[in-house]
From TrEMBL:
Domain LisH: 450-569
Name listed for the protein in its UniProt record: LisH domain-containing protein ARMC9
Domain ARMC9 CTLH-like: from-to ranges: 56-186
Pfam family, one: CTLH_Armc9
Keywords annotated in UniProt: Cell projection, Cilium biogenesis/degradation, Cytoplasm, Cytoskeleton
Location of the protein in the cell: Cytoplasm, Cytoskeleton, Cilium basal body; Cytoplasm, Cytoskeleton, Microtubule organizing center, Centrosome, Centriole
Organism: Cairina moschata (Muscovy duck)
């Protein structure tokens, strides 16, 4: 076995030396191997240049002999590398003479008068060559006369070109061509030794890229798991606090004090609402008389979440400059990193500080009047940049303070509406634009603008065909429609296409995605407040349709449908004077509906190459700033109004928040 390995290595070594044209070294190597009795390949001592010509070399020479111009230059460009053709003087000169040869081929080889059309085509091809690639040799004395060749009526008798039509010139050109091809096109195959070296190097490079990618993904997963852990810890603290209160209540009952149902309900609301508003638990006062609660609170004191570090400050001027002038790849990586900083930060002070830094430094240029600004990335020619910009805006819109910031730019809503109608419905860009608009619909001023822009008509058309929509887009589209229908102006818009809206909503009642049912019910209940819509609904047998779903729906669904049927059979006129919801207030307050969906970071299509920085590493390595965190007291938001799950929704919500507040 050892002898076989040694023999193979000798053979591969000799083949490589021959391939690399170490001619003298090959002779010495072969001689010494013969003296020592070592085996040599059958081609030992035979140079690559002396071996059998390659098939492509034969094809090129055959095309040359037959004057087949197109076939020749097609093979020439395929098999002679562009670096040789463009940079080697010998190759450039040879190519020039070859063009002359083919341009004059018909004049020399035709029996009788050459075909006029074909001759003109060849001369035209030669002219084009002289004006493009051949122009590089126009200053060379050797070639200068030939630039007049296309314009000479009969070059065969012209003194300057007589030589071109002699057999000796053609033979000399063929010899030069053959020699050039022998040197350029290696007749022997690449040696196994060289192949092994190249494959191993490529394999190592791919392995490093793979490991680097795994590292990036692991770091991102770590941030996600840390986020989940922090949420679980917050829930745990809230649970302990509620437990302390309940223990105090039990102590009170021993002393004869009764626990009221209202009290129990308030405890339940607090217990479950914390799943949506993780940061609220820190502001709730659990203080109650009794030693039990004191002891329980003392037991969780050592693990209070008060030491969550703030993320490093960033240089926002440099960030915004690169977001506007950088390459599309850099823009996408920056948008991704800025979004991750927001979505993976710990809810509470850490996330609030990140968001306030973005807002205070006007990261998205919402307050800028410049022609080129960050928001215009929504119109980028790069699909990846548009998608990652839409993802970041959707993340901003997931937070009440972020929505307030975005709402201050009057052009942003128009940009999002344009993208909603221009992007493919199965793209993540479209999904995130729709998600952002749905969250915008929590704000009254933006609701009014969307209704005025006719978004209700567009949504109804989209929801006519739900097969092309993902679960996320279906849920957010229906929820957006419901939020707009809650307004008087929205109801009136629906009344203009009552039959179409009712048909779409009745079809959605039976959709397999049960998460959309509360929004379908809410939209139906709202628009049935309009007498003309009620008449249309009765005409199409809406009550019978609704009663079909009572038979097979859940308890909550049944109770909500009963409310809708009651609204359907109502005879009350729409009292516009009593409805003031379309009069914009000076301060556009909204409920506290902060929730970061996991969908914001799903299906990342942007992957780093070896050595590329991403995420927090990119931000803290290239864009570290000094004291750009400016703490700000968080605006007081209305606590979310809890309504009975028996009734259809009558206040704007987002699906992410509603799933947590009202689990089906």
């Amino acid at each position: 076995a050892v002898d076989l390995v040694n023999a193979a290595s000798h053979i591969m070594g000799e083949l490589y030396l021959d391939y690399a044209e170490f001619e003298e070294t090959v002779k010495v190597f072969a001689k010494e191997c013969k003296i020592k009795g070592k085996p040599l390949p059958k081609t030992a001592g035979v140079s690559s240049r002396d071996s059998k010509a390659l098939p492509v070399q034969k094809d090129l020479l055959a095309a040359f002999e037959n004057g087949e111009q197109k076939a020749f230059f097609q093979l020439w460009e395929e098999h002679i590398s562009s670096s040789v053709r463009d940079n080697e003087p010998a190759a450039q000169k040879l190519e020039f003479y070859l063009h002359i040869y083919f341009a004059t081929y018909l004049l020399k080889h035709s029996v009788g008068k050459p075909d006029k059309a074909e001759l003109e085509e060849r001369i035209s091809h030669f002219k084009a060559y002289l004006e493009t690639k051949g122009a590089a040799l126009s200053q060379t004395t050797e070639f200068l006369p030939f630039y007049a060749l296309p314009f000479v009526p009969n070059p065969m008798v012209h003194p300057s070109f007589k030589e071109l039509f002699q057999d000796s010139w053609t033979l000399d050109l063929r010899t030069r061509l053959e020699k050039f091809l022998s040197l350029t096109l290696k007749a022997s195959q690449t040696p196994r030794l060289l192949t092994l070296f190249k494959e191993n190097g490529q394999c190592n490079k791919e392995m490093l890229q793979h490991l680097h990618q795994q590292l990036v993904e692991s770091e991102h997963r770590t941030m996600t798991y840390l986020k989940r852990f922090n949420k679980m810890q917050a829930d745990y603290h809230n649970l302990i606090g509620v437990t302390a209160e309940l223990v105090d209540s039990l102590e009170a009952t021993v002393n004869g004090k009764m626990i009221t149902p209202e009290y129990l309900q308030s405890v339940c609301v607090r217990l479950f609402s914390n799943q949506m508003r993780q940061s609220v638990a820190q502001s709730i006062d659990f203080t109650r008389p009794g030693t039990a609660s004191t002891m329980l609170r003392a037991s969780i004191a050592p693990v209070k979440m008060q030491d969550v570090p703030l993320l490093p400050s960033l240089d926002y001027e440099k960030l915004k400059k690169d977001l506007i002038t950088g390459s599309d790849r850099l823009k996408a990586f920056l948008l991704q990193a800025l979004r991750w900083r927001l979505t993976t930060s710990y809810p509470g002070e850490q996330r609030d500080t990140v968001l306030q830094a973005y807002i205070n430094n006007d990261l998205l240029d919402c307050h800028s009047n410049c022609q080129r600004n960050v928001l215009k990335l929504l119109q980028s020619k790069s699909e990846v940049v548009r998608q990652y910009m839409a993802r970041l805006i959707n993340a901003f819109a997931s937070l009440a303070e972020g929505r307030l910031y975005l709402s201050q730019n009057p052009l942003l809503l128009r940009l999002l509406e344009e993208r909603l109608k221009a992007e493919d419905k199965d793209s993540l860009t479209w999904e995130n634009v729709l998600g952002a608009l749905q969250k915008f619909s929590l704000r009254r001023a933006l609701q009014s603008a969307m209704i005025k822009d006719g978004l209700i008509f567009w949504l109804v058309d989209v929801l006519t065909d739900t097969d092309s929509l993902s679960d996320y887009t279906l849920e957010y589209a229906v929820a957006l429609l419901m939020n707009l229908c809650l307004r008087s102006a929205g109801k009136k818009m629906c009344a203009r296409i009552a039959n179409h809206v009712l048909k779409v909503l009745s079809d959605l009642l039976g959709h397999e995605n049960h998460e959309i049912q509360p929004y379908v019910n809410g939209a139906l209940y709202s628009i049935l407040a309009i007498p003309s819509v009620r008449e249309e609904a009765r005409a199409m047998g809406m009550e019978e349709i609704l009663r079909c779903f009572i038979k097979e729906g859940s308890a909550e669904m049944i109770r909500q449908i009963e409310f809708i049927i009651k609204q359907l059979n109502s005879e009350e006129p729409l009292n516009d004077s009593a409805v003031s919801d379309d009069e914009e207030e000076e301060e556009d307050e909204e409920e506290d509906q902060d929730i970061m969906e996991a969908d914001l970071d799903k299906d990342e299509i942007l992957q780093p190459q070896l050595g590329e920085l991403t995420g927090e590493k990119l931000l803290t390595t290239e864009y570290l700033g000094i004291m750009t965190h400016t703490p700000k007291t968080k605006k007081k938001l209305f606590p979310s109004v809890q309504q009975s799950i028996d009734e259809p929704l009558q206040r704007p919500v987002t699906p992410g928040y509603h799933r947590t507040a009202y689990p089906m």
